[in-house]
Specification:
single chain; about 450 residues; 5-stranded mixed sheet; 13 helices; globular; RNA-binding
RNA sequence: CGGGGCGUGGCGCAGCCUGGUUAGCGCGCGUGUUUUGGGUACACGAGGCCGCCGGUUCGAAUCCGGCCGCCCCGACCA
C-alpha cells in the first residue's frame, strides 16, 4: 500500500481521552477511532491487525478439532428465559425490541444459541463429542468502558463450546482448548499464563483465565517463576498431540501444577509454601477464559443425546473465550516503547515499511519501487512528500517490524538501510539482501 | 450506579470567574519559498451552528435552567 493514498490518519498529539499506552498508540497510529463510549471503528491498519489475530486464533481452533460456524449477534429473549439467564444477566445485556414488540437482545455470549442449535440436530452419542466455535461481535453494556478496545462495550470474541457425553470427555475437551490457547498466545508473541479463576455468572467448577503480564493490567496476579521456563511446544510441531489423551493430561499437569492465580482466587496459604525467589507478582490482562460447566445449560434447555444404551443423557459442556479485539490492545501493552508500537511479526499490519527519504530522486524512487514491487500489499510504501523525520516518526509509531530506509546517499551506491523496529538495529545492505531478510 | 471533571476549527488548549467591536494560540491542513537522514523555518491562506434547547439581558462562548455526549476515581467485567 502506498502511504500517499492510504487512509491512515496518524496523530502527533494524543487525544485527551486516552490514558493508557495501547489506547493512546492505537489512536495516534490510526488503528481505530471511537464512535461512541466503548465502541470503535477499525481503520485499515487496525483492521489488518485484528484480522491477523483472528486468523491465528482460527487456525489453532481448527488444529484442535473445533469447527467454525457463525451465530447471529441479535438473539431472541425466549432462549434466555429458558435457561433462566434473561432475568439474571442484569443491565450488561443490551435489550431491544423489534417492531412487533418482541424482546430481543444483542448477544453478550452464546451458550443458549449454541445449545439450541445442538439440541435440534445432535441426537446420538455416535455424533459426539463436538467442539463448535465462532468469531463474532458481542456487546456488553459495561457501566464504565475504558482503556480503548481493551474494555469496550462492543468487542470481537472467539467463543467455543464443547459437548461431551460425560465428565471425563469434557475434561479432555477442556484440555484441548487449553493447549490450543497456549499455542495461540505463543504465536501472537505473548507469554500467557493460565491461572485458576472465578467462574463468574456463567457458573461451573473448573475454570482458567489466561493472563499476560503488563503494568496496566486490571488484576493483580501471583505465579511461580517456573512458568517462565515452561515449554509447551509450538503449533503442529509441539510435543503434545490433541488426539492423545495422555499427552493432554501431561500438558494439563504442566500448566496447572505450578501456582498461578489472580487476586480473586489467590490463596495465601499455598503462596506461602513457594520459595521466595520463585514468587512473581504483578499486573495482568485477561486475554482468554475457559470454563467447564457441565449440564448448566443442557438441563434447563432439555438438551439430550442418546447414549449407547439408548437412554437420554444431558451433554456436559464447556465454553472457551478469547477476546480478539482486546488482544490488539493487549499486544500493544506488552510490546511498545516511547516512539510507538512494536508489532510481533505474526500480526503486524505490514511486514515492512519502505521509507523513501527523497521522493523525486531517481535512485531513491527506483529502489523503492523495485522493493515495493516484491512485497506488494504486504508492505507499506511511504511515498509521501514529507521530511525524513516525519517518515521515521510515523514508521516507528505504526510499529512495522522492519523499515527499509532508502535515502539519496545509500541509493546512489545501490544500498538501503534495514532497521529492525524491535531492537533498533540498523544495517546497510543491498535491496536484495533486505528483501531476503524480511522474508 | 456513587463521586469528580470536561464539551470552543482535525488534535491539544486559552478565553468564561469580572457578559461588550472581526473568538485566540500551538500542532495539523493548503499554496509558495526554505530545509533535505529523526516531526525544519518564514510568509500567505482555508477551516469554528463556542455540544443542544430554553431563559436573563440592549447585548451571551461567558450568567441561569434543562437535556445530551465524553473522560477520570470507585464498585463491576472477555
Amino acid at each position: 500500500m502506498r502511504l500517499s493514498r492510504s487512509f491512515i490518519p496518524t496523530m502527533k498529539e494524543t487525544p485527551a481521552e486516552a490514558q493508557i499506552a495501547s489506547h493512546r498508540l492505537m489512536l495516534r497510529a490510526g488503528l481505530v477511532r471511537q464512535t461512541a463510549a466503548g465502541i470503535y471503528a477499525w481503520l485499515p491498519i487496525g483492521y489488518r491487525v485484528l484480522r491477523n489475530i483472528e486468523q491465528i486464533v482460527r487456525e489453532e481452533q481448527d488444529a484442535a478439532g473445533a469447527q467454525e460456524l457463525l451465530m447471529p449477534t441479535i438473539q431472541s429473549a425466549d432462549l434466555w428465559r429458558e435457561s433462566g439467564r434473561y432475568e439474571d444477566y442484569g443491565k450488561e445485556m443490551l435489550r431491544i425490541k423489534d417492531r412487533h414488540d418482541r424482546d430481543m437482545l444483542y448477544g453478550p455470549t452464546n451458550e443458549e444459541v449454541i445449545s439450541d442449535l445442538f439440541r435440534q440436530s445432535v441426537k446420538s452419542y455416535r455424533e459426539m463429542p463436538q467442539i463448535l466455535y465462532h468469531i463474532q461481535w458481542k456487546f456488553r453494556d459495561e457501566v464504565r468502558p475504558r482503556f480503548g478496545v481493551m474494555r469496550g462495550r462492543e468487542f470481537l470474541m472467539k467463543d467455543a463450546y464443547s459437548f461431551d457425553m460425560d465428565h471425563a470427555g469434557a475434561v479432555v475437551s477442556y484440555r484441548k482448548m487449553m493447549l490450543a490457547y497456549m499455542r495461540t498466545f505463543q504465536r501472537l508473541g505473548l507469554k500467557a499464563i493460565p491461572m485458576v479463576a472465578d467462574t463468574g455468572p456463567i457458573g461451573g467448577d473448573l475454570s482458567h483465565e489466561f493472563i499476560i503480564l503488563a503494568p496496566t493490567g486490571e488484576s493483580q496476579v501471583y505465579y511461580d517463576a517456573a512458568f517462565e521456563e515452561v515449554d509447551y511446544g509450538t503449533s503442529g510441531t509441539g510435543g503434545f498431540n490433541y488426539a492423545d489423551a495422555g499427552d493432554l493430561h501431561r500438558f494439563f499437569e504442566l500448566m496447572t501444577t505450578n501456582y498461578a492465580a489472580t487476586d480473586e482466587k489467590h490463596d495465601e496459604a499455598k503462596w506461602a509454601t513457594i520459595a521466595p525467589e520463585r514468587k512473581r507478582e504483578g499486573r495482568g490482562i485477561e486475554v482468554g477464559h475457559i470454563f467447564y460447566f457441565g449440564t448448566r445449560y443442557t438441563k434447563p434447555l432439555g438438551v439430550t443425546v442418546a447414549g449407547p444404551d439408548g437412554k437420554p443423557v444431558h451433554p456436559e459442556m464447556g465454553s472457551y473465550g478469547v477476546g480478539v479485539s482486546r488482544l490488539v490492545g493487549a499486544v500493544i501493552e506488552a510490546s511498545h516503547d516511547e516512539a510507538g508500537i512494536i508489532w510481533p511479526d505474526a500480526i503486524a499490519p505490514f511486514k515492512a515499511a519502505i521509507l523513501n527519504l527523497k521522493r523525486g530522486d531517481a535512485a531513491c524512487d527506483g529502489l523503492c519501487e523495485q522493493i515495493y514491487a516484491r512485497f506488494g500489499s504486504s508492505a507499506l510504501y511511504d511515498d509521501r512528500e514529507d521530511r525524513a523525520g516525519v517518515k521515521f516518526a510515523d514508521a516507528d509509531l505504526m510499529g512495522h517490524p522492519w523499515q527499509v530506509v532508502v535515502g539519496p546517499r545509500g541509493a546512489a551506491a545501490g544500498k538501503v538501510e534495514l532497521k529492525r523496529r524491535a531492537t533498533g538495529e540498523r544495517v546497510e545492505v543491498t535491496p536484495e539482501e533486505a528483501i531476503a531478510r524480511i522474508g
